[in-house]
């Protein structure tokens, strides 16, 4: 017996028979942001005011065009509908802006943390370089040492006494040996 085409197969998913409309949330969000931005402009307020003035003028003075008499119930309905749609659109736009701000803030925080780490690393490297430079003989120090050596090499020719390690000539009175019975004076 052949299987009837109306009979469902259990090994395949059921196809949706309902009408479904797929809306891209990103596209809808961008559209709502544009609309919310437009609702807050002077251009929108100008055109809305102009439409309200024309609406009221036609309904008050043009007897043949009176579709909304004096209490203007239809105009109030239009404003209520506009407010009912405008408020959620504005909230949606604000939520999207909050999400963008949150992402931007997180990126700023991570960038600040990375900058702080980089600054601390550079400070440590700079301190290490200062220590290393402090241990290196400078040009002025080497010049001074070479000048002392040159003077020390020239002094024996002139008959001058050589200098000590600090670069000073020894005092002749302090450098003579003391007689064995004489005691050295204690330092003050």
TrEMBL record:
Q: Name one Pfam family in it.
A: DUF1003
Transmembrane region(s): 38-58, 70-93
Q: For the region Disordered, what residue ranges are annotated?
A: 148-188
Q: Where is the composition biased (Basic and acidic residues)?
A: 148-169, 179-188
Write out the entry's keywords from A to Z.
Answer: Membrane, Transmembrane, Transmembrane helix
Does this entry carry the keyword Transcription?
no
* Annotated PANTHER family: INTEGRAL MEMBRANE PROTEIN-RELATED (PTHR41386), MEMBRANE PROTEIN (PTHR41386:SF1)
Q: What is this protein called?
A: Integral membrane protein
The species is Nakamurella multipartita (strain ATCC 700099 / DSM 44233 / CIP 104796 / JCM 9543 / NBRC 105858 / Y-104)
